[in-house]
Each structure stands twice: as C-alpha cells, then as structure tokens.
Amino acid sequence: MKEQILENLITKYSKKIFGFSLSKTKNVFDAEDLSQEILMNLYEALNKDRKIYNLDAFIYKICFYTWSNYVRRNIDHWQITKGDWISDTKTDEKETDNEFINEIRKRIAYLAGINQKIITMYYYDDIKLVDIAKKLRINENTVRSNLHRTKMKIKEKIKMRNNLHFKPISMNIGFDGNAGIYNNITNLLGQNILYACYKEAKTIEEIADAVQVASCYLEEYLQQFLFHDWMTLNNKKYQTNFFIYDHKYKLAETKSIMNNIENLAVPIYKMALENFASFTNIINGESFSDEALLYFFTGYFSQYLWEKFIDEYLEENIDTNFMIREDGYKYALFAELGEDVSIDDEILRKYFINRSGMVTNRTYGRIHRGLAISEVNRNCKLNSIVFGANASIYDTYELELIYNLIKNESIPNEREKVILSKYIKEEVITIVDSKPKWKVIFMEKEAAEQFFELLEKMKTTFNKEVLVDYLLTSKEVCKEFIPKHLSEEMINYYSTNIMVTSPILYYLHDSKRLRLPESKECKTASEWFYIHN
To answer: What ranges do the domains of the chain cover?
Structure first.
C-alpha cells in the first residue's frame, strides 16, 4: 500500500521535476539525468517515517538540493549565474521561494565584517566586483575569492538547515573571589555564546551559526567577555577561558569519591568524636539530640578543616594572579552544565546525588550588631538533591528583632508575630509559652570564639598528609577533564575545587556511623547563629 502511494506521488510530480531539471541544465539529456537523481532522492526521502506538512515545498527542496550537488560534481561544465544562486526560475511556488530567500537573508545576517559587506554590496546593492574592491580598498581577486567562499558556506548551511536542532543550554555560573554583577553572563544567550566556544575556538560567524543569532547581536557580549578574560581572541577566533563542568566530569569525580572518601571521612569522624564533649560544653547544654549535634559538628569541622587546608595549599603552590581582572575585581569563574544524568548503578547513583546534596557551602547573613547565620548542612532524601536555604532569605532587620525578643524574653506584638511566622515556617524559631525560642544552635560572642578556637586546635592536630593524599588523588582525575587551552595555573586551581563535606557526611551515614537527624531537627543540623565582631 505504501509503495503504491509513493509511486503515485512520484508519477504526479515527475513532469514538474523534469521541467525543473530542463530549466537548470538547458538540454534534454542532462535534464533526464538530473530528473532521475531527483526522483531517487525523493523516493528515499518519502519512504522515511517523517511528517511532511507541505509536500510541494518538500519536493522543491529535494529538487534544489539535488541540483546543488549535481552542480558541485560537474562544476567544470556549468557556469552558474548570479540569478541562479539567489533564486530559482519562475515557479508557482511563491511560498517556497519566500522561505528560501528568507533563509538566505538569515544566513547573511549571521555573517560578520568584510564577508557580510561584500555579499551585501554584491547581491543587495548590485555593485560590481571591481567597484566593491575600490570601495573596500582591497584587491578584486580578494573580493572574488571571498565572495565564492562565502557563497559556498551559505549554500552548505542552507542544505543542512533541516538537520539543525539548536537546543539552548543553561548553566549554573559561580565565582571564587569577589566579583561584580554582569547581566550578560546570567542570561541564556550569553551562556550559549560561552558554551559554543568552550571546546573549540570559533569566529563570530561560526558562533552566530551555532547559537542561530545574527552576528551584530553578539558583538556586545564578545567585547564584555574579552574584557573580563572570560574569553580569549586569537586569529579572529574566540574561545571560552574558564572551566565548565559537565556530566562526564561529575561522574568521574563521583567514582573517585567512592574509591577514596573513606580515607578522609574516618579520621575526621574520629576527631569529631574525640572533641564532641568539648563542643557540647561550649553550647551549654542546648536541648538538641546528640545525633543532630554530632551530625552538625562533624560536617562543620570537615568544612572548616578542608577550607583552611585549601587556602594554605593555594597560597603555597598556585599563582592566583590570573584571577585579577581589568575592572579591579579578583575572582575565578566556573560553570556547571545543567544536564539530566541517568545512572543505573544504585551505589554510584546515590553517591552522585549526595556528592553535593547532603550539605551546602557555608553562607553568612549579618545584621549590624554582628549576628551571623552559618548554614552547614541540610538533611535530604537519598534519591534526590535537596539544597539548604540560602541565608539571603533572612532579613537583617527581622533577625535583629528576633534576637532582641529572644534575649529579652519578650512577648511579641501583632506586627512582630507576622514577622516571626516566616521564621517559624523556616524552623529557625519555635514558640514556647507565647515567646520565641531558637530552634537552631545559637552562640553568643564568647561561646562562638571558644568554638572556633576548638576547631583551630583540631585542625592543627589533624594529620595533614591525609588531606594532601586526598587532594592529589582527586586532582589527577579532575585534570583529565579541564581543557588544555586554559593556562597551567588555571588548571591547577580548578582541579582543587573539590567538595568533601557532602561526600563525607554521606559516607558516614551510609556506613552507619552517623544518623540523619529527625525531621524536627533538620534545621539544627543545618544552621547555627552566632554573635561575632
């Protein structure tokens, strides 16, 4: 049945196809050859399971692309005129002609610099090649060869356009250090420009084609990216100048964690146990379970220990001057590609999820009298990543109000109750006898100082070789995925950006050394408040 339908369609259009071929080749013999080739291509195309919404337009495309290939193979025997390249002979397919011409215009818009000038002057302004050469002050042969190359490039892109499926990517972009605010790196177009040039350098025309946006719209982005060293420019080609993590890197990192995290997690856990009594004495018998407090203490110590170690390592081993920007800021830029990752191995999948999900990086929210929130870790389901709330959700005025209400044991008025309701919902406070009470660990200035003194003492007695071994092992894995066009210092720097606190907590939980806090104490194991200078 399908074969009969295809034969009927081809029979119906065979005369039109022959007319098209004859108008192109100008003789019957060549027209017959071209028609046969078109009919073969048409049969193969129609035989595929694909939806065709405009059959006339589809057949016209097959005719034109077959003709283009035919010309390319027989270029020595054909003289292609200006009119042949731009449009077809008169047909009744006005809609198809308009579509084709619009595609050419779009491709010309993707061009930049002298390429766009030459092709626009020649086809739109109808200026002769010799006059174009005079206007642009270049050799006529240069104009001719440039025009030919550009035409061939556009024809190839038009031929491929049915196979182009541009799918914008999105990235999570962050900074190590002190950076300003840059809109062009947070919007979708800016991110796709950066990703288009990540693996290989591209000209502005190649970038325009990759992101399918006219080149004139890219210039502002490229200038800003160059100024901040987010890109480099060599031989008119742009290349992204920072590391973008993808799922291959993250999987390799996860496998490295699985193989090595025990060597780091166990000694950290043992030291936390040895000093746990000192910690509970500092917080003066707060009414939290030992499970929640040990979970918090182990997580916070691992984070404190690793951050101090990395700071020292960078200072001693890596020149971070590459982070100094022309605008006066100092920072390293990095990004993580948003991807869906499917992992069949259950153990690997859980490690992959919880390599960053068991705990978040420490964040601070301050009010003018020195109250700080330090977020350490957050309980999460083992089959999904759950990030802790960022300290920015807390308002400094509201924190000041809550601090004074709790310190003075005051009963809140109606306006204050409205403010408190948000923090009750966030499980930061609870209400006891109509008064707010902290539901997280809280330390006044003296207790906080004692706590940091304890952490520093633990750090100095911890075996540093354990940290060095874990870092060097992880670095070797990381380096394999960092582009070699980046500077050596940048590669060394990026390869130290290794997470340990989340994997440590997950390993200790999985090995049944640590228990996840109960739901009512998740915030206890996640955040703490303290007064500081």
So the answer is: 2-162, 171-241, 261-322+359-531
CA 86/CA 19 separation, integer angstroms: 19
Alpha-carbon span 254 to 463, nearest angstrom: 24
Integer Cα distance of 515 and 153 in angstroms: 62
Q: What CA–CA distance (Å, rounded) separates 404 from 378?
A: 27
Q: What is the DSSP letter of 47?
A: T
Q: Which residues contact 425 (CB under 8 A, 6 or more apart)?
A: none
Quickly tell me which residue has 């989340």 as its tokens: 502
CA separation, residue 522 to residues 248, 288, 304, 310, 426 (Å): 32, 11, 20, 28, 11
Which position has the token pair 């009963």?
411
Q: Regarding the domain delimited by 2-162, which CATH topology (the fold level of the hierarchy) does it fall under?
A: Butyryl-CoA Dehydrogenase, subunit A; domain 3 (1.20.140)
Residue 371 vs residues 84, 334, 416, 530: alpha-carbon distances, Å: 75, 31, 19, 6
**Strand pairing report for 371-375 and 527-531:** antiparallel
Which tokens belong to 162? 């049915």
DSSP state of 80: -
The model's pLDDT over 138-175, given as tens digits with 9 standing for 90+, comes to 888 888 877 777 776 665 554 444 444 456 788 888 88
Length of the chain, in residues: 533
Summarize pLDDT for 222-237 with one digit per residue, the tens: 988 998 889 999 999 9
* Biggest alpha carbon–alpha carbon distance for the chain: 102
Residue 63's Cβ-side half-sphere holds a number of Cα atoms within 13 Å equal to 30
Joined together, the tokens standing for residue 131 give: 């006059």
- The sign one gets for the Cα dihedral 92, 53, 162, 169 is positive
CB 147 within 8 A of CB 155: no
Inter-residue contact 472 to 495 (CB < 8 Å): no
3-state secondary structure 243-263: EEECHHHHHHHHHHHHHHHHH
- Residue 332 has φ and ψ, to the nearest 5°, of -110, 140
- How far is 386 from 357, CA to CA, in rounded Å? 6
In the numeric block, which tokens belong to residue 214? Answer: 């006219």
Lowest mean pLDDT among 215-224, 226-235, 372-381, 485-494: 372-381
Whole-number pLDDT of residue 53: 65
Could you please report the per-residue DSSP string of 366-405? E-TT-EEEEE-B----TTS--PPPPGGGS-HHHHHHHHHH
The CATH code belonging to domain 171-241 is: 1.10.10.10
The helix, strand and coil proportions of the chain, stated in percent and rounded to the nearest 5, come to 60, 10, 30
The residue type found at 355 is: R
User: Rounded distance, CA 274 to CA 101, Å?
Assistant: 77
With tokens 């500081």, the residue in question is 532
Q: Which amino acid is at 480?
A: E
